[in-house]
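Here's my example:
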Amino acid sequence: MRSIATMFLTHLSCTSCGLRHEWSALQNLCTACQKPLFAVYDLGAAGRALKREALARREKSLWRYREVLPLPLDIAPISLGEGGTPLLPAACFGAEIGFPNLWVKDEAQNPTQSFKARGMAVAVSMAKHLGATKLAVPTAGNAGGALAAYAARAGLEAHIFMPNDTPRANVIECRELGAHVTLIAGLITDCGAEIARRKEKEGWFDLSTLKEPYRVEGKKTLGYELAEQFNWELPDAILYPTGGGTGLIGMWKAFEEMEAMDWVGAKRPRMFSVQASGCAPIARAFASGASSAVEFLDARTCASGLRVPKAVGDFLMLKILRESRGGAVTVDDETMIHTTREVGAKEGIFVAPEGAACFAALQSLATEGKIKPGERIVIFNTGSGIKYLECYEP
């Protein structure tokens, strides 16, 4: 089953204590300190096997980067055509606020209409390869839809736990894709606690954000694609809506891997985390100078993907924001909804509230002088507004 000769993954390493773990068995957090694990590759060999010029001849999906993904090359991935999303100029919106070089990476064009497809494609592929038969995830919405789809594609059981006020579209999506859906009175943290209580008895493998090592591998392809689409020159700044933070963390990992393979130079974008003012643990920790974030009590926001009161990867996000000389911004719900309509009318993109938050954050960062008009800026729209119809009712 495990074709070690056909891959460049060597092992897993703890992001905190550095303890080495084997990749060839199902793994969650570090066995010593309970922090996230990263996949480690022989990047020298991967770089020799895959030259960046060869990518143009490969399929338009995230699997074009197979040499730096964990699944052995001779194992077929569980795929619905994820990745390869467009990088679109936001010329009208940008011109109005004095940013002529503004871009949107539109992740709503993934299967299941969000960036969660990237992480779940890789995580489910690896979970099946390593012998899992039942998968479980706590979700604010889009991750559940993605797991339901990829688990169905893989012939595996999906057990999805959602807050009972999750957008209706997400709940229906999961059920119609054959998943077992449980609604919980509480937040995503309460859903995660319920899975933790039951997973051993039920035989579930936990696919929670950063509590297994391969969702971040799918998300890191955001960074690879961004570099490729900009002809291997990274932008000056990235605005990223941050709940669990896997995409932010994954992109930073991608930048380091690409530099090791001589695909990009040492330049890094300034990374800006965008959160809802009603749930802003990372922004609050960043402002206070803390290296980790305390749980944000009574978290509330219509942007369900941002309603993550405590993230296991908080220390990684805060380190990235500081290393990149970026920052953290908060946006209130009313501004998100207003900005969704503004972006839609100017750019023809029905962004999710999380994506709208980044457009609003850009204006505040510009006012504060933290982003300059001549810089190349990328906003990530992580999902489709179609999933959030309740937010836009009159």
Notes: The two ends are 54 Å apart (CA to CA).
